[in-house]
Every structure is written in structure tokens, then in C-alpha cells.
Design a protein that fits this description.
Strand order of the largest sheet: 2-1-3-4-5
CATH superfamily of the largest domain: Histidine kinase-like ATPase, C-terminal domain
CATH topology of the largest domain: Heat Shock Protein 90
Radius of gyration: 31 Å
Number of helices: 9
Mean pLDDT: 80
Low-confidence stretches: 232-238, 375-383
Helix content: 40-55%
Largest sheet: 5 strands, parallel
Number of strands: 12
Shape: elongated
Strand content: 15-25%
Length: about 375
Amino acid sequence: MTRILLLLEHKENRRLLAQWLESFYEVGLPDSDQQLEERFDLCLLDGPATEQWRQWLQERKASEQPVFLPVLLIVSRPEVGMATRHLWQGVDELITSPIEKVELQARVEIMLRTRQLSLELHEANKQLEELNILKSQFCSMVSHEFRNPLTVIYSCAQLLEIYDEPWHREKRIGYLRRIEDAAQGMTKLLDNVLVISRSDLEKMECYPAPLNLQEFCVALMEDMAHTNASEPSTVAKNQNRFTFVCEGQCSLVMLDRNLLQHILTNLVSNAIKYSPQDSNVCLNVVCDGAKVIFQIQDRGIGIPPESLPRLFESFHRAKNVGKTPGTGLGLSIVKRCVDLHGGEIEVASELGAGTTFTVTLPLTPFNSPSMCISTDAGGSRQE
């Protein structure tokens, strides 16, 4: 609620103004230093209070820069001629008494609207600064993440082209698979960038449809196990073990297949990526009729506590990932897809012991309106 601070020496004027303003705003009548530190949107003061509070008001206004903090001075007509230029360093508007309530309210509303516009402009500037940072991070990430697979494709293509001697079929297929893997990696990166851009442009939508969740999860884990086994970085070492547990009636639920694919693929991929060799990656699914709970658990490196608040921001990566490749987009995509489903995501992690992500999605009953959240400005449900 809009808060107006009254700094008036005339007690009767202060009482009358407070009584009238309280019908429209929250009114502050400070009687301690602690109350003076509370937030306010406009300050009203009179002539006798000017000298006492001038320095404090100047400091308070400076502390809120570049946001506008208005100060409205109420003076009698004889006091107007006594105003000095130093006074205007801390005062933004002046009104003479006796005061018409309509005029005072108009002045107050104009000052408050100016402050609100200043706040909105400040917030817009902050968002532009963040977008510029994200743009720089994106360009750097794309340059780095594309360079490696492009180098692989170029090198393998050159080898296949310039060497005339007959190769064993197995060796030739090996190079072709490296090209294929590199191309798939680039495609995955482009898919992630597309999801982020569609979400930023508010074009992502949620369309629940009947889904055999148990079969979906089994197929997904089999695909992840196959991908894990075929990754060049894991060929020379033991593979991760995968566990899938399903509880409740999960044979037929209403969920958005594409959004769920993004959620589980990114979470399971991260569990694999940040886990030691031969460790176990678990996917537990519980369906209870009104909601479905997914738990993805690993015994990997864990997440530092200081990284948790920014975990779902685009391009953010924990400081302990080392040289493990990644874009910092996966968890941001997960969060956006969970939000579109109207669900929640939680994370519990311990350094060196592993991480558990818990995703809870509400289930849309059959033949009923969708529980998904729209990305339009009004935040309405998708029907």
C-alpha cells in the first residue's frame, strides 16, 4: 500500500491531515529513528519542520536514486517569500495553506504517479541491463559450445575425404558416428535455446493429453541409458546404473508430453553428467490421483549451498562443475516447464553426496479444463 510520511510541527495540522489521508493511504507518523527508516512513497512537511529534516531528506532521496522520492512542502503565504535555493535541494513541490482538500489530493496523486513511473522506468532499465548480460553470456556460450562439435565434424570429414587407403568398415563407421554425435549435440543445444526463446517470448503453451506415464518413463530411461553408453566420454569407463520405480496408478494420466520430456530429460541428463562412474541414477514416480511426484536422485558431486538461490537462472552453473561441459540452460528450461504445468520443483543437495530433485505436477482430470498455466500477460488458465 502507498505510504505517506508526515513530518509536520503543527500538531493540529498533523492530526487533521493524518485523519483525512488515512482514508486513502497508509500514513506514517514517526516517533522513533526506527520508524524513520521504514519505506515511504511521499513525504509531507511544513515550514517549521524544514530545517530539522532537510539534511535527512536529502540523504534519503539520494539513497533512492535514480528512483524519484517526492517531498511536498506545506507553507503559509508569508513563508513562501522566505524560501531559499537550499530549500529546493530537498523539496519537489510546494503548496500554500490554507489548503483545499481537492487541490492537496491532486498534488499528492501527481507526486505519487511520478514516483510510480520512476519505479517502473528503473525496473525496465534493470531488465534491459540483465538482458544485455544474458545476451553476452549467450553469445559466449554458443561460440564455445558450437566450436567443439564443429571441430569434431570438420576433422572427421577431412579424414574421411583425404585418406585414400582403404579403411576397415569399423574405423570408418567410428568417424561417422563421431560426426553424428557432434551433430546431435548441436541439435540438442539449438532445441534448448529454442525452448528458452519461446518461453521468453511467451509462446510456450501447455496441452495435457492422455499419457501412459509408466511406459513413457521406461522408454525415457532406456533412451538415456543408451545415450549414456554411446557417449564418447563414457565409452572407456563403467556406465551409470539406472533405477526406475513407479507407484500408484500411472498407466493413464493427463500431462503435456513435450513439457514432461524436457523436464525429465534435463534432470536425468544432469544426474548422469555430474555423477561418478558406475553410480546409480534413480527415477521414482508416485501417482496419487490428484498429482504426480517425480524424484530424480543421484550420488554425484552435489550443489554448493550458495548456488541454490540462482540454480534455475539461465546460464547459471554451480562453481564446482569444473570442466564438465554444459550451457546452464537445462534447469532454467525445467523450471519454466514445471511452471507451465502449474507445478513445483524442489532440490535437496549435499556436496560430495548427491542431489535429489522433486517435481510435483497437478494432474488434470479427464474431460475437465486444463490445470496448466498460460504464458499470456493475464496468467489465465489454458482451457
